[in-house]
Specification:
CATH topology of the largest domain: Rossmann fold
Shape: elongated
CATH class of the largest domain: Alpha Beta
CATH superfamily of the largest domain: Formyl transferase, N-terminal domain
Helix content: 25-40%
CATH architecture of the largest domain: 3-Layer(aba) Sandwich
Strand order of the largest sheet: 2-1-3-4-6-7
Strand content: 25-35%
Radius of gyration: 20 Å
Order of helices and strands: EHEHEHEEHEEHEHEEE
Structural class: alpha/beta
Number of strands: 11
Distance between the termini: 63 Å
Length: 231
């Protein structure tokens, strides 16, 4: 990479920042932005980056930034299949064990921009483990993009759009097998996600650290009274 070029990495999760720090980037060239309110056109203009890279970012980026800078986001589906929200959860609920991590240029339409490159990635483990795996791969792809500076190519094929999941969708009563129960617990087991839960007799049971073996699901559970429920 050229010594006079600068880069911004934007990520909303703790693991994004910790893995960014592990790269030992030259702080004179690299900046990490972790909060939505810190991503302003004025700050970006002052740095004038060659690229902005977005990791695990769910908010709309201001038009002044998208229009004037090369913004690269990472989406964990083989687009145009899987555009839209909650890609990890939608993939797992559809039975996928592997996916593609796609680096694409941001446009005004979510996940519809041209593609720089794609890499295979597995979907084993809980959500936080998968997101850390995705982030590590993202940094490898960032280095490749900076090194090769590929021209992004338009997406081809029919678009399949995923619907963003809501907190109520984490209810475990919507599963009908142990495998589905295990998948639902693990796919929500990450910082900032509403955990899989059931509510029964005035209590809420929230599940994490799921393991499936021996014809049973073993998981941690936190039990709290439901506010306002009759005792």
């Amino acid at each position: 990479m050229k010594a006079d070029q600068k880069y911004i990495v934007v990520g909303s999760k703790d693991w994004n920042l910790s893995l960014f720090a592990a790269q030992n980037f030259d702080q004179r060239q690299w900046l990490f932005i972790a909060a939505k309110e810190e991503l302003t056109a004025e700050k970006v203009e002052a740095i004038n980056p060659r690229y902005l890279f977005f990791l695990h970012w769910s908010w709309k980026v201001p038009e002044e930034i998208i229009n004037h800078y090369e913004c690269v986001c990472f989406h964990m589906t083989d687009v145009p299949y899987g555009r839209g929200g909650s890609p990890l959860q939608n993939l797992i609920m559809r039975g996928h064990q592997f996916t593609k991590l796609t680096a694409l240029r941001m446009t005004h339409e979510f996940d519809a921009g041209p593609v720089y490159l794609k890499q295979d990635v597995g979907l084993g483990g809980n959500a936080e483990e998968i997101y850390m795996r995705i982030t590590r791969l993202s940094f490898a792809m960032i280095e490749q993009i900076i090194r090769e500076q590929p021209q992004p190519q338009p997406q081809t094929g029919e678009a399949v759009v995923f619907k963003r999941r809501q907190p109520a969708d984490s209810e475990l009563s919507q599963v009908n097998s142990l495998e589905q129960m295990h998948d639902k617990i693990r796919m929500l087991d990450a910082e900032g996600y509403p955990p899989a839960f059931i509510e029964y007799e005035g209590f809420r049971f929230e599940f994490s650290r799921s393991a499936l073996y021996g014809g049973r699901v073993v998981a941690d559970v936190i039990i709290t009274p439901i506010e306002g429920a009759e005792s």
